[in-house]
Amino acid sequence: MSGRSFAMLLAAGAMQAGAAAECSRDIAVPVSASGASVQVEGANIGGIYPDLLRAMGAKNGCNFVFTLVPRARQVAMYKDGKADLLVPASRTPSRDLLGTFVPMIGHRAMLISVAGQRAPITSAKNLLERRELRVAVVRGFDYGEQYTALVNELAKQGRLFTEVDVVAVARLLNAGSADVTIMGPTLMAGAIRRDQRVNGMQEKLRMEPIPELPWHESGAYVSRALKPQDQRVLVDMLEKIGRSNQVMDGYRSYFHSDVLTDSVRPR
Alpha-carbon distance 75 to 68, whole Å? Predict the structure, then answer.
């Protein structure tokens, strides 16, 4: 199934949904390009989450206004109460303080590199000991406390590259300017798809799980800066999406099973 076919199915499903309370105002959703989850082509913003929100919003009286920003800015806007939704988002304690989390899928970050002859990396400690390896990450990504601690230590060692988006990280790996990145494999696969400069890179990649990067819930945060009635409408809408596993179906429509294996699973 193509991404276009997935969007058509969503629209058909939304037409069959029952009526619900409406949002009292437009819902601000800043987004950044994020694999199949959020796709940007010129002025057009699509992908799994925007398509789902538009389809459900049309029936439930909620208008989502998407704006394109860097990932770090997207997270900062959520923290400042300027983003009504943070999506897609991993669940973290600090984000829980500011909004209600609705899980959509299970996922985990992995170590990703261009395949070569180096010995496997088996843990965060092992990665920190391998001081010859340069690591690139995306500013604003957060996979939990252990991820943050690992990234902070890599920065102290002076071998961390922090980039604005996944495409920039992919280009560093492809050019040999960085050796390893830490993120969800679908994010890397999506970036490779949309940037001709790294075309053909997917087949060369090596994915390595480490125990410090366990499975996490991923989904959407509804900001508590919204009126309580709007929060209820959005949480109810997102819960319906989560229970239906439409996000997982979206991933399956965009990626082969080898990209999803060991990194994405149903809610």
Answer: 12
Do residues 73 and 227 make contact, with C-beta atoms less than 8 angstroms apart?
A: no
Chain segment 215-244, per-residue pLDDT in tens: 999 999 999 999 999 999 999 999 999 999
- Whether 121 and 180 map to the same domain: the answer is yes
Tokens encoding 231? 């929060």
Say how far apart CA 54 and CA 120 lie, in whole Å: 43
pLDDT of residue 16: 46
What's the confidence (pLDDT) of residue 258?
85
Q: Could you give the number of structural domains in the chain?
A: 2
Residue 25 φ then ψ, to 5°:
-160, 175
Chain-centroid distance of CA 225 in Å reads: 22
Residues 219, 89 contacting (CB under 8 angstroms): yes
Q: Kindly indicate the confidence band of residue 261, based on its pLDDT and cuts at 50, 70 and 90.
A: confident
Rounded Cα distance between 101 and 239, Å, is 10
Query: Which CATH number is 181's domain given?
Result: 3.40.190.10
Please indicate, yes or no, whether residues 204 and 114 belong to a single structural domain of this protein.
Answer: yes
pLDDT in tens, 12-65: 454 444 445 799 999 999 999 988 999 998 889 999 999 999 999 998 999 999
Cα separation, 56 vs 21, in Å, equals 12
Question: Which neighbouring-strand residues pair with 137?
Answer: 162
Around Cβ 48, how many Cβ atoms within 10 Å?
30
For residue 83, count CB atoms less than 10 angstroms from its CB and return exposed for 0-12, middle for 13-18, buried for 19 or more: buried
Q: What is the dihedral of CA 241, 242, 245, 247, to 10 degrees?
A: 80
What average pLDDT does the segment 63-84 reach?
97
Residue 97 lies in a domain: yes
